[in-house]
TrEMBL record:
Taxonomic lineage of the native organism: Eukaryota, Viridiplantae, Streptophyta, Embryophyta, Tracheophyta
Organism, scientific name: Salix purpurea (Purple osier willow)
Pfam family, one: PMEI
SMART domains: PMEI
Protein name: Pectinesterase inhibitor domain-containing protein
Boundaries of every Pectinesterase inhibitor domain copy: 32-181
Signal peptide: 1-32
Alphabetic keyword roster: Disulfide bond, Signal
Source domain of life: Eukaryota
InterPro entries hit by this protein: Invertase/methylesterase_inhib (IPR035513), Pectinesterase_inhib_dom (IPR006501)
Family per similarity comment: Belongs to the PMEI family.
Molecular function GO labels: enzyme inhibitor activity
């Protein structure tokens, strides 16, 4: 016999409906981006990376342009600072182990300076948003991205640590997203 739907009595029916609603909203959040996020992410080099990154912030489903600008800068900022932390940890462990990694140390110092520039550019971008200034966002995002680019270039010819390669690439992609978000304000 075909199985019956098991939602007979009114209280259980309510349970079922709640469950369905929960399921629906979960699928909705992971499958469908808002029109605004879609508009932004279509212009990014990786659509899925873009959607995933923006949705790492719980405000994204309700975000307008302005909030999305904060979110994109915030995601890039926290990515940049965690890669920055990784770089300084690596430098510290080289210091502890002596000077046999001179070459690696020099490359990491270039990265350290690059990420310093990147983080301060993103702080500036955040401050600009606080004062509702949007015209600098694209430039500052570009500056942050070039900090990651400098780090990538420092490892030219030899493979960088995997975490660093990913950090550089992620930050460049996240800055690209900030740049696209900036275009939402052009003409304001
Ligand atoms: C950087 O952002 C990407 C995309 O949101 C994420 O997958 C990655 O885990 C982040 N990395 C760090 C170190 O925060």
């Amino acid at each position: 016999m075909a199985s019956r739907v098991s939602c007979p009595s009114p209280p259980r029916l309510l349970h079922c409906l709640t469950l369905l609603l929960l399921l629906f909203s979960t699928f909705h959040a992971s499958d469908a981006a808002t029109a605004l996020v879609e508009k932004v992410c279509r212009q990014a080099s990786s659509y899925s990376f873009c959607v995933r990154s923006l949705y790492s912030d719980s405000r994204t489903p309700e975000a307008d342009e302005y909030t999305l600008a904060y979110i994109s800068v915030g995601v890039a900022y926290s990515n940049a600072t965690s890669t920055q932390r990784y770089i300084s940890d690596q430098l510290k462990s080289i210091e502890v182990s002596g000077s046999s990694h001179r070459d690696q140390q020099q490359r990491l110092q270039i990265c350290s300076r690059g990420y310093q520039r990147a983080v301060s550019a993103l702080v500036m971008a955040h401050n600009d948003l606080d004062s509702e200034t949007f015209f600098e966002l694209a430039r500052l995002a570009g500056k942050a991205s070039s900090g990651a680019g400098d780090c990538k270039a420092a490892f030219k010819g030899i493979p960088p640590p995997t975490a660093l390669a990913k950090g550089n690439q992620d930050l460049m992609h996240l800055c690209e997203i900030c740049g696209v978000v900036a275009t939402l304000f052009s003409g304001m």
